[in-house]
TrEMBL record:
The keyword Hydrolase applies. Mg(2+) 2 binds at residues 102, 105, 269. It comes from Moraxella caviae. The gene is fbp. The lineage of its organism: Bacteria, Pseudomonadati, Pseudomonadota, Gammaproteobacteria, Moraxellales. Keywords: Carbohydrate metabolism, Cytoplasm, Hydrolase, Magnesium, Metal-binding. This is Fructose-1,6-bisphosphatase class 1.
Length: 332
């Protein structure tokens, strides 16, 4: 039996190990609150009151505060950026690592007792000795030194990459530690399962419309096999399913809201999940281009996402090329 602490001792630098340990410790606090559910007064909107008349805080606000507070007190952490906060938070000037996180991905699932999770990405701080700024965070995903997610589902788990494959850990409530359950997670090359919010269909670009049309035609169409569809509405859960039993996940560019290229955020969702999926042998693109090669221009920028089974991700890219349409509508 290998604990997370033992795994980190042999696989990570002391600095990265320390930051992952801080994240893991905080995740157990979040997991405990989720276990208590309504009894912890975490349901409903922030600013509301529970039945006892006490102030309620939504769990995404609480999770954000817990993670931010823990990370800025870690001496190895130079700065933190959260999906929930407009500005980055500088931490320790001598720190060598920057952390971005989505404290509670899929948070609309909390009130209905469904899966949510915490996604994180660790980048090197190249300006050690100076107060971290947003510019320090604007690095391509290929620079990530660690990434992963904590999933709070029927059990709590951690999926982690340090750039040499993907490991999965399961949280043991008795010992309050994460235990390694798979040190070589692999995404299968082929799949017959896809995940997309199909209600956005009319807002997609032509190649994505064509792709989903072909999948829904099943064995009566050009793909010549039937596909199944799943959508948990929490990226964390859809990606977790893909790591366990295969699949392709998409949140493509759409024209639903002017000026928003799809929904997901590059620094908090796109890059960390792309790092995990690629390290497990899958692919992660915007439909055409590798997500981890995006040069970020803004900490909260959005990115179209197509990730998972390499055969499907390549098929989507080929359709875009055949139709001469880039992932965000530009001509190819
Ligand atoms: O980023 C937020 C998120 O909750 C993702 O985790 C999830 O994949 C997506 O939004 C769900 O979007 P929709 O509300 O369109 O189903």
């Amino acid at each position: 039996m290998t604990t997370l602490a033992q795994y980190l001792e042999t696989h990570a630098t002391p600095q990265i190990a320390s930051v992952i340990t801080t994240l893991a410790t905080t995740s157990t606090a979040i997991s405990n609150l989720l276990d208590k559910g309504a009894l912890a007064g975490i349901h409903g909107e922030a600013g509301g009151e529970n039945v006892q008349g006490e102030a309620q805080k939504k769990l995404d606000v609480i999770s954000n505060d817990l993670l931010l507070n823990a990370l800025i007190h870690n001496p190895n952490c130079a700065g933190v950026a959260s999906e929930e906060l407009e500005d980055i938070s500088p931490a320790n000037t001598d720190g060598t690592l920057l952390v971005t996180f989505d404290p509670l991905d899929g948070s609309s699932n909390i009130d209905i007792n469904m899966t949510v999770g915490t996604i994180f990405s660790v980048l090197p701080q190249k300006n050690t000795g100076n107060t971290a700024t947003e510019a320090d965070f604007l690095q391509a995903g290929t620079n990530q030194v660690a990434a992963g997610y904590f999933i709070y589902g029927t059990s709590t788990m951690l999926t982690l990459t340090l750039g040499k494959g993907v490991a999965m850990f399961s949280f043991d409530p008795l010992s309050q530690t994460y235990i390694l359950i798979n040190d070589n997670v692999q995404v299968s090359k082929t799949t017959a399962e896809y995940a997309i919010n199909a209600s956005n269909r009319r807002y997609w670009l032509a190649p994505m419309q064509q792709y989903i049309e072909e999948l829904t035609q099943g064995d009566t169409g050009v793909r010549n096999k039937d596909y199944n569809m799943r959508w948990v509405a929490a990226m964390i859960a859809d990606v977790h399913r893909i790591l366990i039993r295969g699949g392709v996940f998409m949140y493509p560019f759409d024209t639903k809201i002017a000026g928003k290229a799809g929904k997901l955020r590059l620094m908090y969702e796109g890059n960390p999940m792309a790092f995990v999926i690629e390290q497990a042998g899958g692919l992660a693109t915007d439909g055409v281009k590798r997500i981890m090669e995006y040069q970020p221009t803004h900490i909260h920028q959005r990115v179209p996402v197509v990730l998972g089974a390499s055969d499907e991700v390549e098929y989507v890219k080929a359709l875009h090329e055949k139709m001469g349409v880039g992932a965000s509508g530009e001509a190819l």
